[in-house]
């Protein structure tokens, strides 16, 4: 492809940044995508935000499932391309997409069938909030297959050294979502006032358009997609390799979401407004971790191709240079969230009685942003080596520690803020421990 970047030759920093910048821009677009929803939904009421926040947890859980096919497919395609084994790359790409289709359709079916008990888990207080949450869940998760395909196609293209296609497709989806959100939420012209349902429809329609753009962009790509043949019988060996690489990361993400759901249930004990604060606050702080996740995807592909080619010294340099960038970014995000929390949160929920809770959330979580960036980038480097288990063990262990820590802290004068501090403390330790583990693992790999 003309947009493909050579990750095996040339200056390390130049190759890495050429791949990373469109991915980071894609992440920022995705963040803007989510924040746009929050801005418009926040104009309805904090109750509407609480509805979307509860239902959105299951969309977050779905992303963990999608990461199995995305991570496994991206790493194995990168390894195969680095080793000049094009047929294997095609096989891994095909089977990753087939897995995404299967899991996306299955998850959508289960979300529609079990929408009532799924929302009931959070023990929300208002019947109107509960009803809106069920509607949002049925639409966004019921048609989650588009999101699954978009994530896997993004991973495969990134492994090939093409990150621009994902940026263009995602940016188009953002524009569509920006236009449709106010039209469908509030009703403009011939369109009826749909509220939360309108936000869900706008989101899914935009995701479907992104999928169509991906298909149009890659249908004649000769290296992999022209030879894909999706109706070919799945390869058991390829699926096993994809699952071997992707499962630890997928389990980590799903467990992280499950823990967040438990914490959200604890937060609901402080009222539906607290749920809204958590939803909006997490979207705001995503500016750091989504951007870092984009850079980590570039590091993943860079290390995967060079590892497949046997060029360990180049892979090592890629990680070192990437860490400099994300540390600077993390420090900047920490500064912004700690110093300017009120004007930022006011954009989304201006209600005076809720604003102080939002300010506390951003300031407390702001402390952890630097360490979160360290963790995410290092996990991407691990995955590029085909080693997803070590970061998953570290993450799962310290994420699980959030629950007893939160229970302990909310019984102190900190109250609700104790929950936010439990998240921050665990993120700090995850970043530090994972970097240390990576240094030890790299020495063994190089030796």
Automatic annotation (TrEMBL):
So which domain of life are we looking at? Bacteria
**Location of the protein in the cell:** Cell membrane
| The keyword GTP-binding is assigned to this record | no
- Membrane topology listed for this record: Multi-pass membrane protein
- Check the record and name the InterPro entries matching this protein: MATE_fam, MATE_MdtK, MdtK-like
Q: Which UniProt keywords apply?
A: Antiport, Cell membrane, Ion transport, Membrane, Transmembrane, Transmembrane helix, Transport
Instruction: List where the protein spans the membrane.
Output: 12-33, 39-61, 99-122, 134-160, 167-188, 194-218, 323-341, 361-385, 392-412, 418-438
Main localization (coarse): membrane
| Family assignment from sequence similarity | Belongs to the multi antimicrobial extrusion (MATE) (TC 2.A.66.1) family.
What this chain does, per the entry, is described as: Multidrug efflux pump.
Q: What is this protein called?
A: Probable multidrug resistance protein NorM
Tell me the organism. Answer: Sellimonas caecigallum
């Amino acid at each position: 492809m003309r947009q493909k970047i050579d990750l095996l030759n040339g200056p390390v920093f130049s190759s890495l940044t050429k791949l990373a910048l469109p991915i980071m821009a894609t992440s920022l677009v995705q963040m803007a995508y989510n924040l746009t929803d929050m801005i418009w939904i926040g104009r309805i009421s904090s109750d509407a935000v609480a509805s979307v926040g509860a239902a959105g947890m299951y969309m977050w859980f779905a992303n963990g499932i999608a990461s199995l096919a995305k991570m496994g497919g991206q790493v194995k395609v990168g390894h195969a391309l680095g080793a000049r084994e094009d047929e294997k790359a095609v096989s891994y790409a095909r089977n990753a997409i087939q897995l995404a289709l299967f899991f996306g359709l299955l998850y959508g079916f289960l979300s529609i069938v079990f929408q009532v008990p799924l929302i009931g888990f959070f023990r929300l207080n208002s019947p109107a909030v509960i009803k809106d949450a069920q509607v949002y869940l049925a639409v966004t998760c019921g048609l989650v297959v588009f999101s699954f395909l978009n994530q896997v196609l993004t991973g495969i293209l990134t492994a090939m050294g093409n990150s621009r296609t994902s940026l263009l497709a995602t940016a188009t989806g953002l524009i569509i979502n920006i236009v449709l959100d106010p039209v469908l939420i509030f009703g403009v012209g011939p369109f009826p006032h749909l509220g939360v349902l309108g936000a869900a429809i706008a989101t899914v329609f935009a995701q479907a358009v992104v999928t169509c753009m991906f298909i149009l962009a890659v249908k004649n790509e000769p290296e992999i997609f022209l030879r894909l043949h999706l109706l070919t019988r799945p390869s058991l060996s390829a699926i096993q390799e994809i699952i071997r690489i992707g499962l630890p990361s997928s389990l980590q993400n799903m467990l992280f979401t499950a823990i967040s759901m438990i914490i959200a249930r604890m937060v609901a004990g402080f009222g539906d407004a607290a749920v809204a604060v958590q939803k909006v606050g997490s979207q705001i702080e995503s500016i750091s971790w989504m951007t870092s996740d984009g850079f980590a995807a570039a590091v993943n592909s860079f290390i995967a191709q060079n590892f497949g080619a046997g060029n360990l010294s180049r892979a090592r340099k890629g990680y070192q240079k990437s860490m400099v960038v994300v540390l600077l970014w993390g420090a900047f995000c920490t500064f912004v969230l700690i110093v300017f929390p009120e004007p930022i949160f006011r954009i989304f929920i201006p209600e005076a009685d809720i604003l102080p809770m939002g300010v506390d959330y951003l300031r407390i979580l702001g402390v952890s942003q630097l360490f979160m960036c360290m963790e995410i980038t290092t996990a991407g480097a691990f995955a590029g080596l085909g080693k997803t288990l070590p970061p998953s063990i570290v993450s799962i262990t310290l994420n699980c520690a959030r629950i007893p820590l939160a229970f302990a802290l909310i019984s102190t004068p900190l109250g609700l803020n104790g929950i936010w501090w439990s998240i921050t403390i665990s993120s700090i330790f995850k970043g530090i421990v994972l970097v240390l583990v990576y240094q030890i693992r790299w020495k063994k790999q190089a030796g």
